[in-house]
Amino acid sequence: MNDVLKNIQARRSVRLFENEPIHRATLEVIIDAGNNAPSGMNTQGWRFVVVETPSVREKLTAAGIPKYKEWLETAPKQAQEARALIDSKVIDPVFYSAATAVFVVGHGMAKDMDCPMVCQNMMLAARSLGIGSCWIYMGQLALADDEVKNIIQIKDGETVYGPIIFGYPKDEAFPPAPPKNKPVIQWI
Ligand SMILES: Cc1cc2nc3c(=O)[nH]c(=O)nc-3n(C[C@H](O)[C@H](O)[C@H](O)COP(=O)(O)O)c2cc1C
Question: How many CB atoms lie within 10 A of CB 105?
Answer without folding.
Answer: 22
